[in-house]
Amino acid sequence: MKTILVLGAGTAGTAIAHKLRRRLNKDWDIAVVDPSDVHLYQPGLLFLPFGDETEDRVVRSRGSTLRRGITWHKSAVEGIDTEQQRVELSDGQKLAYDFLIIASGSDIRPDMIDGMLGDGWRKSVFDFYTLEGAKALEGALAGFEGGRLVVNVVEMPIKCPVAPLEFAFLADAYFTKRGMRDKVELVYATPLDGAFTKPLASKTLGYLLEDKKIHVETEFMTGEVDSEKNVIRSYDDREVPYDLLVTIPPHSGARFIEKTDLGDEIGFVPTDQHTLAAKKANNVFCIGDATDLPSSKAGSVAHFQADLLTENLLRAIAGKDLEPTFDGHSNCFVETGYGKAMLIDFNYETEPLPGQFPIPGIGPLPLLKECRRNHWAKRLFRLVYWHMLLPARPIPISPTMSLAGKQLSAVAELGGA
Fold first, then answer.
1. 3-class DSSP state of 412
2. Distance of alpha carbon 101 from its chain centroid, rounded?
3. Mean per-residue pLDDT over the chain, rounded
4. Continuous H helices in 286-405
5. Same domain, 148 and 192
6. Using CA atoms, how far apart are residues 9 and 25, in angstroms rounded to an integer?
């Protein structure tokens, strides 16, 4: 029997394992390696601190998310021998593979910033990219009586790049609903030169920050969290004071990648941006947040990659050349508060454009426009995630970006930016 081994059973790993199981016969063993008992629906973490989501709806047992016919090795990866095509597990097993898929995601690394894990951690300094952090932050927000709340993106890349902005927007609505918005100063500190990096997004969405009175501190490269003085300090010695700090810590690839020669300096796997083949080894592919690709580290990207990587793996099994089909396609909802959201759709080459999605000219979801339909689509996506995306049932959205129904004139108005 031949084996396709998937390292990681998060969104990307679970989806690709199910797709391959559906397409390959029983001569192939589809096996996943993951030490965790639980599968976490990460988009739900954004809502949990505001009391709009519950733990039981964002967590399921790992066994319930893997269908019959997939072998689950509940262990951590200790090492990878790409010459022998073998993976060593922490329980001592050595697993041979014919093809390897690295779907190990990214790790949240507060330990990489001086002082972040100091006396203020989970007291005045919180994250919401982990279940534990989101739950602790819920209590902190409920007890917050006013002051300076700083949302700080430490560095890129991060999972779901729009989530920090969404948190700031939801915080504005949260404190308004509590009747204390005038007692809270909201600050968004980012290492980028603006809250939105794309010209059209900046032009279309920039008003949100002004209307919600959210101050933006740009090009802020966080080097230290000083819990005694309640300030974050940048490498150029600028300081941003806070009463409550919501941080998005640095991300790295999985720790086991550091023990191999497959990764870059922070543990992400150099990957061909169109075929998803790992650049440093044969018969190895990479998918989802584990890659070093310039695409967004978001669930939609993992879904689109899984569709296209399945086809390339079938080509590789048949001895055919890989097709350069992945275009960096991503779409995501941007919660703006007060029961509304925007939807953006983009890829490597094309920035978010106005239009209709998913059916050109019909929608029903408008692009780059606030509306309640987008908000409810995002909230209901949890059901799509559990019942369609993870088990690899067909979702009628193209894995490559379509320009049909999009207003290309919007780019022309910006001089072709």
1. helix
2. 18
3. 94
4. 299-317, 372-384
5. yes
6. 21
DSSP code per residue over 110-171: GGGSBTTTSTTBTTTEE-SSSHHHHHHHHHHHHT--SEEEEEEE-SS--BSTTHHHHHHHHH
According to DSSP, residue 386 is labeled I
Q: d(Cα 225, Cα 129) in Å, to the nearest integer?
A: 18
Q: What domain range includes position 114? A: 110-251
Buried b or exposed e, range 85-102, using 16+ CB within 10 angstroms: bebbbeeeeebebebbbb
List, for residues 192-246, the tens digit of each pLDDT value: 988 876 666 666 677 899 999 999 999 999 999 999 999 999 999 999 999 999 9
CB 96, CB 4: distance < 8 Å: no
Distance of CA 63 to the CA centre of its chain: 23
Element (H or E) spanning 63, and its range? helix 62-65
In percent, how much of the chain has pLDDT > 90? 90
Looking at the domain assignment, is residue 154 inside a domain? yes
pLDDT per residue over 327-374, tens digit each?
A: 999 999 999 999 999 999 999 999 899 999 998 888 899 999 999 999
365-368 long-range contacts, CB within 8 A, separation 24+: 367/342, 367/343, 367/406, 368/200, 368/201, 368/204, 368/205, 368/342, 368/343, 368/344
| Pairing assessment for the beta strands 59-61 and 38-40 based on DSSP bridges | antiparallel
Residues near 319 by beta carbon (within 8 Å), at least 6 away in sequence: none
What does R_g of the chain's alpha carbons equal in angstroms? 22
**Are residues 159 and 177 both part of a single domain?**
yes
Distances (CA, A) of 8 to 35, 286, 328, 340, 357: 9, 11, 21, 34, 31
Block residue for tokens 């079938």: 314
pTM over 0.90: yes
Q: Is there a single domain that holds both residue 246 and residue 120?
A: yes
Tokens of 26: 């029983």
How far is residue 33's CA from residue 102's CA, in Å, rounded to a whole number?
Answer: 10
One DSSP character per residue, 5-41 reads EEE--SHHHHHHHHHHHHHS-TTEEEEEE---SEEE-
Q: Is residue 55 part of a domain?
A: no
Helix, coil or strand: residue 50: helix
The answer to whether residue 52 is domain-embedded is: no
- Separation between Cα atoms, residue 36 and residue 244, nearest integer Å: 31
DSSP label of 87: E
Model confidence over 300-314: pLDDT tens digits? 999 999 999 999 999
Mean pLDDT computed over 41-70: 97
243 and 271 housed in the same domain: no
Residue count of the chain: 417
